[in-house]
Amino acid sequence: MHRAYQPVLPSGNKYLQQKWDKAYYDEHIKKVKSAKPMVNTTTPQTYGHLHLKMKKLKLQEERLSIIERDNNLLLEKMSYIMRTSGRIDNKNEYQSKSLNKEKRQRELLQITKENQQILERISQCWPQYSTEKWQEDWEKNEKYMDSIARYPRGWYEEMHKKNKMRSSARKANGAEVKTSDEETNQEEKPDDLSREDQNKKSEEMNKEIDEEQRHAETELKKQHEVMQD
């Protein structure tokens, strides 16, 4: 590295010149770092009396002490009054009087009398509309509706209930068939017989439901004919 070094002044040995220059430079850097500044850049001195303000704190303490003393005096007076009956009687024996009290009482009596008379009139009045006549008209209207209608009343609700019963029976039969199929897969031979039995049972249940539905329809038709007559 010393061979490539180029000194400022001519020298006979580049290695020694580089070493001396480095030593001079290091000493210069140390002097610069240790040099004292000519300008004072430190923080100024703080004064406690400017920040604390002892006079204000003292006045505040005196004010609080006065308030506390007054409160204690009031508390002692109140406790003494509560413990004793007091030396002054402040009861007021004056009774409030009203100039129009009798007039208001007369008006109230008159209003109550009028209300009673109105109540008697209302209780003695007979109704202008007859509920019995309304009931008779409604029954006539029901008969007319039954005679005009194609199907008797309650027919749709009964059919809906029967359809629900039929669907639930079919679902139950389907579940039984599935369980029987699982059991027959475990066994070897009796699966065909169980399926036939289950099919027969389902057919019998469907026939019973159809017969009940037909019976209900015939009864409803009979009732409808009787009502039309």
Automatic annotation (TrEMBL):
InterPro entries cross-referenced by the UniProt entry: CFAP97D1/2, Hmw/CFAP97
Disordered, as annotated region: 161-229
Biased composition (Basic and acidic residues): 178-229
Xref: Pfam families: Hmw_CFAP97
Family the entry assigns: Belongs to the CFAP97 family.
Protein's recorded name: CFAP97 domain containing 2
Species for this entry: Erpetoichthys calabaricus
Lineage, top ranks: Eukaryota, Metazoa, Chordata, Craniata, Vertebrata
